[in-house]
Each structure stands twice: as C-alpha cells, then as structure tokens.
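Entry for the shared binder. Reason: the reviewer on the internal report wants the predicted structure included alongside the sequence.
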Amino acid sequence: MMYLRPFDPWKSELCTCPAKYSFNPYTGCSHGCLYCYASSYIKDFFHLREKKNLIESLKREIKKIPENSLISLCNTSDPYPPVEKIKKITRKCLEIFKQHHMRVIIITKSDIVLRDMDLLRETSCVTFTITTFKYYKKLEPNAPSSFDRFKAIERLSKEGIPVGLRLDPIIPLLNEDEVEIILKEAKNCGVRHVTASTFKPRWDSWKRVSRVFPEIAEKIESLYFRDGTKISNSLYLPESLRKNLMIKVKKICDSLSLTFSSCREGFLELSNAPSCDGSHLIQEKSFSPAQVSTVF
C-alpha cells in the first residue's frame, strides 16, 4: 500500500488545487467534526488508527518523487490528533520531508503543531480550519477550541511561519453570521490567506448536523435536497446562494488585505491568490519547482 499519493479529489472539475501529494500520518480522525465528509468513505473514521509500517514505507516512497514537491498534510484527517503528543508520528514524517527538501502544507485544527515549528520554517505553511466561536464544542466536539487555534496562529506568525485560514464549511443560519468576526481575528493574528467553502453534506454528515442542530437543519433542508445540486456524492447549495456567500467572504478579505480563494465552489473569478490552498505562502527554494510524478 502506498501512503504518499498524488492529490486527486475524485477527479472533480471544481478542484483548483496545484499539483501536490496527499499524505495522512493516521487513518481516521478523533476530532468528531459533524460536517466531516471523509467519514462517508473511510470505515470507522472517527476511530483513529496508526498505519502499518508507515515510517518505513515513507522512507521508500519519498525517493520516488522529485525534490521540492508539494505535500499536503492532511486532506482527510488531522495530522495532530491528541495521541500525536506521545506517538510523534507526524513529527517523524516531517523530519523525512525536510531531509528530502519537500515543501509541506499543514491543514489542522490543533495547536500541537507548535511543537514542530523547528521543522516548519522555510519550506512549510500551516492552514488552520476555524468555522465558529459560538458552536465549536458542538460542531467540532473533540477538537481544540477556536480560541486555542487563534493563539497558535499568532505564535506561528510571530515565528515567521506563514499561516492561512480555512473558513470551511460555512453553514447557512449556523455560522454565516460569524464570518466577519472570524476574518478580523484571523487578520489580527497574522493570517495572510483565506480559503472558504460552503457546507457540502453527504448523507452521514447531514444526519449528524440534523441531530445536533435540528431547528437549523429543518430550515435549510430544502436548500440542499430540493433546490440544490448533487455533485460527486455531495449536496451543494443553489449556485446563487453559494456565490453570494463567497462574495461576502471575499469583500471582507479585500477590506482586510487578505488574499482569497474558494474550495470546490466553481467561482474562479473571485479568487485573487496564486493558489487556492495557500501553498503559495511557502518560501520558494533555489531548486526548480517539481511536477507531480506519475511513478505511483
């Protein structure tokens, strides 16, 4: 089994990510976020597991891709679950990436990432997912608080490590009224780029949100199931509503001098950033940028 793979989110035409590799140090995630889409296709997703022979396999696989390749941690789980404090599996992987001169983009909700700042300088950036101040205990029950994440953002930024924000997902009537306050706090803490997207539920994530927020789910159900569109097994809000939400985020970002992009929304004209995922924040090295290898 290969653990380091070319990033290909279901071959979606809506994906605008740059060429990169996807790598998940753990299988599953213990954060228990209601909106998680990975639980729809990874069995027993909320039960975190270690991967068999991960480090040994990575040491072999890393030799097959060019230096300066972009590696994303993680697209389906969080590289910093609580057990990482003890296991240090993600840290061991970062050490291997650094030895082989790879660029790394971290996607996390955890302040444990601060432990690895020594490995993240020069060739990495960190993007934090923050969706709400009011409902994080219900929406992301086992993840660090949004307040702790902002503290981590501020610390990373002060240490010279570029930080982006994933305002993802925006759920109508639930957290859309928090967009401006989140973005202003992000700017204050040193965020430089924002990636935003709307809630795109699959059946299991819809059931979780409906169970915890029944009144809101009742009000927005028709937007998804009657007026929305199904794309790649995900339910999308009506295009006009999605676009208005993205325009709202972009206008606030513009006022704060933050670059903006959206994730799998289809509104390329709204993006004003060199990359949608924030990987453009990584300092370029002297050697030439690599293309994703097809050896796998």
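Summary line for the report: The mean pLDDT is 94.
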